[in-house]
Every structure is written in structure tokens, then in C-alpha cells.
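Weekly structure sync, notes
Attendees: PL (lead), two postdocs, one rotation student
Agenda item 3: pending single-chain targets
PL asked that the sequence for the first pending target be pasted directly into the notes so everyone works from the same version. It is reproduced below exactly as submitted, 261 residues in total.
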Amino acid sequence: MNLLEAQGISVMRDGRRLLSDTSLQLRSGELHALLGPNGAGKSTLLHVLSGEWAISKGTITLGGRALGSLSAADQARRRAVLPQHDALSFGFTVREMVGLGRYAAADQRPAHQRQILKAVMEATDVTHLAERRYPSLSGGERRRAQLARVLAQVWDVPHAVLLLDEPMHSLDLAHQHAMLALLRALAERGFAVLASLHELNLAARYAHHISLMHPGQLLLSGTPEQVLDEPQLQALYGSGLRFTAINEDGQRQWLTGWRDR
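Predicted structure, written out during the meeting:
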């Protein structure tokens, strides 16, 4: 089931074309990884799917309805967004900051709210930080707390959309794997998850679907097996990239590396 769909969208800003004729479908049950080099348009695409930036051409629908026809509160109850940059500087505790995600929730019963905050903080490993002041956290701790806030927004929505711009930024290796395992589990629970990533190995391991972006365009979209092809990735990232398929315990895995030209 398509929860969010973009058809033929183009974006112009400050006289520059940032996206051209781009189409994308986010389906319930899928963790969809968005890959591409810096400047490829990943953040631009997330900006327009979140409704933050206007499109100059094409259509975007959320739950089958035109995005522009939905109120901000209605959008917030169906779709949650993790931006790339964190601008919060107020001295909230982590618990208070995560609780901001419940502002537009349909179910405001106190017991239900507490249950959800407990669940999302446990899922993102920030329970032990609950009474810490948010500005005192490390970069990785902030990122996990922000993800908890985003998840709190839609945790009790049966088919929600998550739009995550570089969710692995500042996370250590263990938390990178934990967060992607969590996002995959949420997708398999019925969410549609789109995450822009730079880690090809992690995308190969956890994503159900991958889209490759070339500056301003969606180049290729499909399963990891269909998309993660060494010649294709070398054309996108540079000829030094090596991408090798291996078998481990009967399952196909991928390893990336870089060789001197």
C-alpha cells in the first residue's frame, strides 16, 4: 500500500533546478534507503515530501490525498520528519523534548502519553538520559533523543510515514545498527520509512528498497540486489569504489571499500 507518493515533481529555488521529474512511492512495510553523493538532492526531496518546500511541477499525495489539502495537524498525525540539522537550544530535559512529539496526537490521555514516551525512549536507548538537559548531550545522544521525539509523534498510528534525513549522523557503530534494525522493525509493523543514508553497507543490510540519486534526479530504484551494482555505483560515486557481494551463513551480504585510482 502506497502511503506517500510523489509523481513527476520538479523543484526550482533561487533560479536553480534542484529536482527534475522525480517520482517516488513509499509503501507500508518498507524501509526505503535514499543514497547518493553530496548535493544529489536527497535533502531537497525530503524537504518537499515533508511539505516544507513547494514544488514547481508534479503532485504529492499522503494517504491518497493531495498533500496541500491536508492541515498541518492532519499531516503531523500521519507523517513525522527528522531533519538533518538540530536547532533546538532550549534547556528542556530529554523527557520534555521527546514529549513535544505528542503535541498533535489524537489520543492525549495522560496514561497513554506516558506509555508511548516510555516505549520510544527505550527503543532509542535514551531512557537513562530522561532527566538530562538536552543541550548538555553529545551529538549522538541528541540524535537518538530527536529520533525518539519523531517516533513519539506517530508511535500509535497504524500506517505512518517516517521521513528521516541522515538519521545515523553522529551515532556510533553499535547505535547505527540498533537504529536501522529499529527502523526496519517499524516498517515491518506497517510504517513506510524513507531514510537518506551515506553508509552503503548499512543500506544493503537493512533496507527493503533503495533509490539512488544523481544530482537533481532519481537514477535507479529497486531492491538492494537490483540496485547495488558495482559499475552503477562507480559511475555515481567514483571509479575508486569497490562493492563486493559475499555469502555469510547462507545470506547475501555486501562490503564496500575504496581503492587508489
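Discussion points:
- The first strand starts at residue 2 and ends at 13.
- Residues 71 and 225 are 39 Å apart (CA to CA).
Action: rotation student to compare against the earlier draft before next sync.
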